[in-house]
Amino acid sequence: MIQHFSSISLEEMSGVKLMNRVDTKFIFNQQKLPDLLRALDAFYRILEIEGKRIQDYKSLYYDTDGRKFFMDHHNNRVNRNKVRFRKYIQSNLSFLEVKRKNNKGNTIKKRTKVKNIPTALSDINKEYVENIIGKSLDIKAKQWINFSRITFIHKKNKERITMDINLSFENAKKNGNLKNIVIVEVKQERMNRSSNFMRIAKEMRIFPTRLSKYCISTIYLEPNIKQNRFKRKLLFLNKIENQS
After folding, report:
1. Which stretch, 1-5, 100-104, 163-167, 189-193, has highest mean pLDDT?
2. Using CA atoms, how far apart are residues 23 and 25, in angstroms rounded to an integer?
3. pLDDT one-digit tens code per residue, 172-214
4. What's the total number of domains in the chain?
5. CA–CA dist 8, 19 (Å, integer)
6. 20 phi-psi bin (left φ>0, alpha ψ -120 to 50, beta other)
7. Average per-residue pLDDT for the chain
8. Phi and psi at residue 165, in whole multiples of 5°?
9. Could you tell me the CATH number of the domain that includes residue 65?
10. N or C: which end of the chain has fewer CB within 10 A?
11. CB under 8 Å to 42, separation ≥6 — which residues?
């Protein structure tokens, strides 16, 4: 269905980067995707890069040996961070990215361009991360998370939607995937529940669900890690993944 959408280029969508934003996530089984795309067609344009409307992403996430970033999320701490390198395959661009969730519920992303994805931080990388986080942390590469993304831009409003499919993850010992799941993130300057996507999702009984790809993949890759606050979410995710 994505071929029916009108397209937008990377340059044209530069005004909707939304590096400081409110995010709302949705999770559903991929079987609902065709009907959802048909309903979105009238309201959104699709990002197209060199003729491709599905972009591939490779991300390497960093954390401390004690999994501080994971535990901060698990314990619902405000002003928490995530650190990753991300390669945008079709654009052939790589960035070191630091995402911060502040005490107002906003997501603030800062990034700097790099030549490739390293398996250890350089001194320059460390300084960049420390300046944003505000302190020195001994962080190391923990796991790869890979997925394909479809990006939509609202035709009138300042709203961007990312739709992630074919999610897989791995570390040195284990791998896994959630390829039956679609993860959608609605990115807005401020919460606007009159969004066309939110209205259509509600009509299709697709409801907002907070989910961190990093946290969920950590649990799959390290099942003995503390996870009690994620148990209901894991049960819900398993139910969605196995819908027929």
Report:
1. 163-167
2. 7
3. 999 999 999 999 999 988 777 789 999 999 999 999 998 899 9
4. 1
5. 19
6. beta
7. 92
8. -135, 170
9. 2.40.320.10
10. C
11. none
